[in-house]
Structure formats: structure tokens, C-alpha cells
Amino acid sequence: MESKSKVQLFFLTLFLSTLTLHAETLATYIVQLHPHAKTKSFFTSKLQWHLSFLQQTISSDEDPSSRLLYSYHSAMEGFAAQLTESELQHLKNLPDVISIRPDKMLQIQTTYSYKFLGLNPARENGWYQSGFGHGTIIGVLDTGVWPESPSFNDHGMPPVPKKWKGICQAGKFFNSSTCNRKLIGARYFTKGHLAVSPLRIPEYLSPRDSSGHGTHTSSTAGGVAVPEAGVFGYGAGVARGMAPGAHIAVYKVCWYNGCYNSDIMAAMDVAIRDGVDILSLSLGGFPVPLYDDSIAIGSFRAMEHGISVVCAAGNNGPVAMSVANEAPWIATVGASTLDRKFPALVHMGNGKTLYGESMYPMGSHHLIRNGKEIELVYVTDVDTESQFCLKGSLPRDKVKGKMVVCDRGVNGRAEKGQVVKEAGGVAMILANTEINMEEDSVDVHVLPATLVGFDESVTLKDYINSTVRPLGRIEFGGTVIGRGVRAPAVARFSSRGPSFQNPSILKPDVIAPGVNIIAAWPQNLGPTGLPEDSRRVNFSVMSGTSMACPHVSGIAALIHSAHPKWSPAAIKSAIMTTAVETDHTGRPILDEDKPAGVFDMGAGHVNPDRALSPGLVYDIRPHEYVIHLCSLGYTRSEIFSITHRNVSCYDIMKMNRGFSLNYPSFSVIFKGRMRRKMFTRRLTNVGNPHSIYSVEVLAPEGVKVIVKPKRLVFEQVNQSLSYRVYFLSRKRDKKVGDFMNSAQGHLTWVQSQNGSYRVRSPIAVTWKISKEH
């Protein structure tokens, strides 16, 4: 009996220790390793080397490979794995481990926009200069793709470039033969997402797109011409991407819950090896330090391989310092408006009319055809959820047969319409709250609906409260282009600078169309797994910096096709220095009711035609970014995490006194009693030989700007010349209330012979005042 008790005690102890192990929660971490570690040579492959760290860390008999999610080689040296807290602490102390970061989730942030940007297939312009982007490969990291969309038809496309090493990965309702000469590759990455939560129906475990976001962005960047495109008759015309001749490779990293850094890093890791030329990432979050930013780290590797990385600035505007994807080697894109509107007016029973916008199918509902007024209701006496029309919040007895007013916010705009319809409502008015002001992102709704601005919503609610039986009707006005609309303007939601992590670099870099963009959209799948109607052309409308990003990705593809030897920095410089700061009326681009500033729009609004022939470019070599990081005060280990370069900043800064990054814009920061700043810049001639450029300066208020020399004489193409800029802060009253916090201007190099080239750099000046001032 005694020996039996000992055996039972042994198994009980073993059982409890197992429970203790699994009681520790597993979490996903991205582990960065030293790329030049000597221990690598002891293993037959990098994968085995990566697994060896887990073998030393995991104390149970569990197979280490069961914890490994990804093994990274190109975007970063390291791996993603699931670890307990105690294992994490042990792994941190192993040799050759540089850093360990918890996996984080990021969020995903056309028939007319190419015309708005001046790209016209009927005349000689940027499309012809670049061959429509032929030969360039755009890699899109997003929610996948709907390959049957006519935007990805490969008729007339050239063969797949020989450098392409990617695959067409099979999965649910997606065959390896689905790709073609337009959509040349497709992959999906799930391990980071599945480690946290399961996939939800109707998500596809394949590169197929169930949300539409990835199909929309991919077709915006490089979709081919599709006639008769539009949304329920709105915005009808020929849809084209920015680079209709470019090839597209899709990397599905975003799922129902969002996009995890481990999956994003895995996609960037593979895309670099696959051979893409452009990486387009319409995703991001809030500003984080560069050494803790997986996109910044992966994009540094991509940049070193000659790949241009274009990212969305984020949708957290108009809050200052909200811009994401701040790394100077990334092109960061904010959103602008078009001069195209979709009016849907609200005629109230008191005879007044409110302006709204919508894309509900005109004439498809009897309430619209008959022009009948119906009762308006704004449910405020139940709870705040009713005001926002959250699911299950609307009492059927209060809304049945009525036009329901829903405050914007909390849940999706289109979702509110579904809630109203399920509760028995027959129409909806979306009312902007103060946070959205007059911003007008339209949607495709399941019932007659329109969106009104904040001022209109106040008028509407006043009317509802003033009468016992308020009435209204919606009049849909179709598509209106121009008609006195000033555009482009900065979208209210577009994230703003200055850069939180790196204010010495002006971000965002540029703005591009991102409001009410029409592009390709998924269809419904039938029981066989094929589209229900292959003849149906699906397009939809979306707004966000997610939509602005692929516009610039496509423009970068055009420049790469025209100038295949240009570096990512040269391509970005071309886009920035040719951007415009005026709208189509010739007046300053607006941010709501005031002129937009450099922290709102960066260098300005993209101009594809001019970007293809910029005259001069500010080029940046990879090692110069390292010097820049040193100048910011980053530690050796932080710089190593980003660049994989082991450097002594003391020695670097000693050799590069007065260094400033050769960026196409200027961000000048005066601290305390500082009154003088000097910047050096280097311009490379990519225009005509024997060119002379003279400088023009609009000095920021309160600053004197001196440029030496004032003329640059280039004898040949690809010649580089440097100049210096001195910024002198004029003496001012030291009282905080009287002291200017920021000012802006610009510096432009103009070709003296005929002025055909104008190379413009925005200037932002900020004064940081110490407390005693």
C-alpha cells in the first residue's frame, strides 16, 4: 500500500506540474537575432538555428517546432513563436538575441481618380512615358484579392518578369492556377492571427478576399481598364489603376480581427525574396519607436534591396502627431478629396433642405420614386446605443415605417443601415457628430440613406424636436463632378504631423485621393465555390488613407518603370518635390475651412505627370539613414535592431559633424534659446545636361533663410551638387503667449533656362519653448 501511495503521489505531482505549465498563458513574440552570429555555422539551415533557441527555452517535452510560427530571413533575422512568460525571460538571456517584441495587431486603414490626377490615356503623358508601368511588380499586403474581378484580367499584359520568384498559393476557393500575367502571385499568412483567435465565417483560408479591402487597394494600384464600372450607376466610367500595366502580387496578412505584426513581417520577408519592386501597405496603427516597429524594420531591409515601400499615414486625424509609419525610408501617404460628389438631399417638412451624400440605388425604392414624405425619428429616450443605432438597440415600435436618424460613430456606417432595416425602419439619415464635422465619406446602403454634416445634423435635430410629427424625404442626385467644388482638400480623418517619434522628418510626405474612391470589389460565391455570376462587374466605394496609399504605390510603379535604376529615395523625392500645394482652382489646398499646413499634407498633393520628370532628386544612400538614427540619439542596440548594422555612433557623428539627412523636405526645430540651424542638402540632376537652377525661398514667418550657393550649375546628367541652408530665428518676445509655435514656407530650385523644372521642398519650423520662457 505504501509503494502504491508513492506511485499515486508521483503521478499527482506530474499532473500538477503539467497543469502549472499550461496555466501560463502562451503569447506570440517576434524574436530578433544577431544576423552575424557565429553559432549559425553549427547548423545546417537557418530554420534549425532558430529552432535551437526554442529547444533551449522550452522546459517541457513539447516539440519546439510546434511553438514556431515563422522563421524570418530577409526582412529580419529571427522568428515568431509562442512563449510563456517564464520562457520569455529565459530566452531574453540567451546569446545572440537582440530583442523580443510582443506581437501587435494593426488595422487596415477607380473610375475617376486617375483623371483627377491628370493621367489620360487619350494623350501623351505619364502613362506613355512609363509604359503604363510595364515590367514593375507591386506587392500588396492587405486582406487578399478577388482574382475574378475584371480589374485583374491579363489580356494584353506582357509575360511575367523573369526575376519573379513568387508562387500562387492554393487554398479555400483559390487554385494555384488562379494567377495570371496581371495577378502573378498570391500568398496568405495566418499563423500570427490563429495564435490569438480562430478565423470566422465567411473568411477564406486562402489568398481570396472576403472583406473587399485588399481587392479595392490592389485594383487602385494596378488594375487594368474596366469599362462601364461604377456603383449602382454612380461614378460610372472606365476604371483604371494608377499603373494599369504593372504586375500585382498579393500577400494576405489581414483577417477578420486585424493584421498581426508576425504575419506582416513574414509577408515582407517573402516578398523581398519574391522580387517585388514596390510594397504597398494600407495598414498601420499609432506611432511607435522605429526599433519597435515591425513595418519600419522590414521596410529598411526592403529599401536596401531597392524596393520602394509606401504606407498609409493612418485615419486618426485631425489630431496632431497622429501620423503612423514615420520611418524616413517609407513614403507616408495622407488622404485628400476629389471634386466628385454624390448628393442626396434631405427635404424637411418645414420647407428647409439639408445637403447630404449617398450611393443608394436611385429609383429602386417606392419612397424615392414617389417622393413621399415619411416620419422622422431620432431615438434618444432609450439609451445612448439607440442614438448610434447599435445592433439590437432600436425599439421596433418606435422606428417601424419611419426614417431613422443615427449618430455617426462606434459601429460601421453601413452596419447602422442594416440595424435600422432589421428594426423595421424604411430609411436612414446618418448624422455627423462634432468629431466628424462636415466630412462626407459615402457608403452603399441596404435602404434609402444619406450622410449629413455636423451643422446639418444640428439643424435636423432642432427640427425634429420642434414638432410633434417631423417629416422628411431624400432626393438622390446621382454623380456631380466639379460644379464649384474645391479639390483636392485634406480629408478630415487623415492623420497629421508632426512626427511623434522623429519630428526632424516632416510627415506625412504627401497626400493623394482617399475619399469616396471607387474600385474593384468581391462578388458572392455560389455553392460550387465559383462567383455566382461571372458576368457581373463588382465595384464599391471606400474612404481612408488605405485608399490614398495605393494611388502613390501605383505612381511609384510608373516612375520605377520609366527609371528602373532609381533608388527608392529618388522615387520618393520625385513624388514629393513635384507635389502641388494648390487645388484645381489655383488657390491653396484647404483643410476644412482654412489653408492646409505642411503637417496636414506634407509636400502637397501628388502629381504623376510631373513626378516622372522631376529634373532633380534628393537621393539617400542606406548608410545615411544609419547616420540619421545616430543623430537622433538612438542607442547602438536600437540601431542594430532596425538596420542590422553594428555601429559606433560616437565615431560616426565625429566623422559627420553637422549631418542632416538628405530629405526632400525641411523640419527645423528651435529649442530653448537656439537661434540658428544649418542643413546640408545634395541634389542629383536627372533632367537635362548643362542645366542651371536658381533658388526661390518663401521664408517662414519669424525666420530668415539663407541659401549658399544660390545657383547650381550642372554639366551632365547624374551629377550631384550640394548646398547649405541657414535658418535664423529672429529675436522675439519670450512670453509663451506671444511666441509663435510653428511656421511654414518652402524652398524651390527653378531651372533658369526655361523654368520647366521646379523642385520644391516644404519647410516646417517649430519652436519648443522651455518652461522658464
Automatic annotation (TrEMBL):
Name where it mostly resides: secreted
PA domain sequence ranges:
375-456
Chain ranges of the Peptidase S8/S53 domain: 133-582
Please tell me the species this chain comes from. Answer: Clitoria ternatea
Q: Output the superkingdom of the source species.
A: Eukaryota
- Cite the InterPro entries for this sequence: PA_domain (IPR003137), Peptidase_S8/S53_dom (IPR000209), Peptidase_S8/S53_dom_sf (IPR036852), Peptidase_S8_Ser-AS (IPR023828), Peptidase_S8_subtilisin-rel (IPR015500), Peptidases_S8_3 (IPR034197), S8pro/Inhibitor_I9 (IPR010259), S8pro/Inhibitor_I9_sf (IPR037045)
Q: Which residues form the Subtilisin-like protease fibronectin type-III domain?
A: 661-765
Q: What is this protein called?
A: Subtilisin-like protease SBT1.2
Question: Which residues belong to any copy of the Inhibitor I9 domain?
Answer: 28-108
Similarity section: Belongs to the peptidase S8 family.
In its UniProt record, a GO molecular function of this protein is: serine-type endopeptidase activity
- Which cellular component, as a GO term, is one annotated location? apoplast
Write out the annotated subcellular location. Secreted, Extracellular space, Apoplast
- UniProtKB keywords: Apoplast, Glycoprotein, Hydrolase, Protease, Secreted, Serine protease, Signal
Name the residues annotated as catalytic in the UniProt entry: 142 (charge relay system), 213 (charge relay system), 546 (charge relay system)
Q: Where is the signal peptide?
A: 1-27
Tell me the function of this protein: Required for arbuscular mycorrhiza (AM) development during AM symbiosis with AM fungi (e.g. Glomeromycota intraradices).
